[in-house]
Amino acid sequence: MKSNRPLILISNDDGYHAPGIKKLVDIVRPLADVLVVAPESARSGYSCAFSATDYLRLKPRHNMGDTTVWSCTGTPVDCVKIAIDQFCKERKPDLILGGINHGDNSSVNNHYSGTMGVAKEGCLKGIPSIAFSSCFYNEDANLEPLRPYVEQIVSKVLKEGLPKGICLNVNFPATESFQGVKVCRMTRGSWISEIVKEHHPRGYDYFWVVGKYRNDEPQAEDSDQWALNHGYVAITPTTIDVTAYNFMDTVRGWDIK
Amino acid sequence: MKSNRPLILISNDDGYHAPGIKKLVDIVRPLADVLVVAPESARSGYSCAFSATDYLRLKPRHNMGDTTVWSCTGTPVDCVKIAIDQFCKERKPDLILGGINHGDNSSVNNHYSGTMGVAKEGCLKGIPSIAFSSCFYNEDANLEPLRPYVEQIVSKVLKEGLPKGICLNVNFPATESFQGVKVCRMTRGSWISEIVKEHHPRGYDYFWVVGKYRNDEPQAEDSDQWALNHGYVAITPTTIDVTAYNFMDTVRGWDIK
C-alpha cells in the first residue's frame, strides 16, 4: 500500500463478515487505499469498550481487491488500536470509518454503539473519523442507495479534515430513497422495558437485555431522530470533550471542602 | 427497604467484591437505603457497553448491614439496567453511584471507563448519577480520606439533584491528603504505545492492550489532570448530549446532496 492515495482504516461492530462493512469497502476503494481490521464476531453495543484483561488475536480473512480484511478477537475500539499499532507504523490513516452498521446509531445509541466506538477512538487518536449506520436492521437490506452520500461525505472529509475532537455520526433512514441531508443534534430519548426474564430448564432465572426506544422529543425538527423519521440522512457532529461547561459554576457554588 | 430515606443504587466496574465498592457502601449507608448490583468479575474499560447477545444472571452474594450485594454476569451498564428493572419497580433510585473505582477516570478515560458507564446509564435513565474514582490503582490503598468529600457531594446531590443529562465524574488524586476541590473540564490527552505483542508457546502471536497516558495540555490549570497532579479532588461535570454544536454550520455548508 505505498501509493499517493489517502489511506482509510475501516472497522465496525457487526464483524468482518457483515454485508455493511463489505459495502463500505466497495464504496470507498475508488477513493483511497483501504485497510480493514474488524471484530471476529458481532460486537454490537460495545461502546468505547477495550480489552483491559483479555488478549487479542489477529487473522487475515479474505481479500477485496488489494485490501486484506483482518479479523481481531477484541472490541471495535481494540480493532482501531491494534490496526494503527501493527499496520500503520510508517503511514498513519488519513481517515477512519466505522460501519456501515446494520441498525440505528442516532440519539442515545451514540453512547452504546460500537460503530461510534470506532469513530470516537479514531478521533481520540487525532484522526478524522466517521461512523455510518443504516436504520435497516436486516443484513440483507439494499445499501446501494447510500453510495453517493458516503462518497460525498468521505471525499469532503478527506479534502478538508475535521476539527480535533470532533467526529461524525451519520445515520441513514430505513428507506431506499432519501429526502436529502440534515445536520442534526442528538435526540433526547430513552430505552425502556429493557429486561426480559426467562427460566432455564435447569431451574434458575436468566435475563436478556432488549428494550424499546422512546423518543422524548418527537417534534424536535433539529434532532437526528426527526430527520430519520422523515426520510433524511442525519449527520450528527459528535464531540469528544464531554465536559458540561454550563454546570461548572453551579458545582463551584456547592463549596465542597 | 421501605423507609423515608432516599434510595441509592451502587455499581462499579471492578466487581462486587472490590474494596472500593465496599468503602462506598460504607460511606453512604448512613445517608440512605442502599442497593448494590455490581459485575461478577472485573469489567474495567467496558465504557457504556451492554450485553446485546449474552444472557445475564443475578446472584445474591453477601450482606452489608441491611444491604444485599448482588452480582450480575454482565457489564456495568447491564447492572444498572437489571437493578432498576428487577429491584426498583416500586421505588426508583434517587441517586446512582459508580465506584469507588481503583484507578484514574479523568481526561479521555471518561470514554473508556465502566465506572462512568454506570453514571452515564443512570443519567440516561433520568436519575442523578455520580462516578467516584481514586487514582490509586492498588486495591489495598487507604480510601478513608475520601469519606468527607463523598459524604458532602452525595448529600448535596441528594438534596439538590442534577440537571437532566448531566452527571459527575469525581476523581481523587493518589494521596491521602487533598489540597481541596477543583471543578474542571476534561483534559485533552491520548493513550500511546498501547499494544504489546507476545509469542505463544504454540507458535502464534497474540497481543495485550496496555499503554501510557500522555497529557496533551499539562499546563492547563482548568483541566482535571492538572487538578489531580496538584493534589486536588477533581469534579468534571459530564454531559450526555455529545452534539458538537459549534461544527454544525460548517457541515451544513458542505451541501451534501
From TrEMBL, chains A, B:
Its cofactor is a divalent metal cation. The keyword Cell division does not apply. Residues 8-191 form the Survival protein SurE-like phosphatase/nucleotidase domain. Its EC number is 3.1.3.5. Pfam families: SurE. Keywords: Cytoplasm, Hydrolase, Metal-binding, Nucleotide-binding. Binds 1 divalent metal cation per subunit. The keyword Hydrolase applies. It comes from the Bacteria. Its main location: cytoplasm. A divalent metal cation binds at residues 13-14, 44, 101. InterPro entries: SurE, SurE-like_Pase/nucleotidase, SurE-like_sf. Gene3D superfamilies: Survival protein SurE-like phosphatase/nucleotidase. GO terms for molecular function: 5'-nucleotidase activity; metal ion binding; nucleotide binding. It is an enzyme of class 3 (hydrolase). It is found in: Cytoplasm. One of its GO terms (cellular component) is cytoplasm. HAMAP family: SurE (MF_00060). Nucleotidase that shows phosphatase activity on nucleoside 5'-monophosphates. This is 5'-nucleotidase SurE. It comes from Hallella mizrahii.
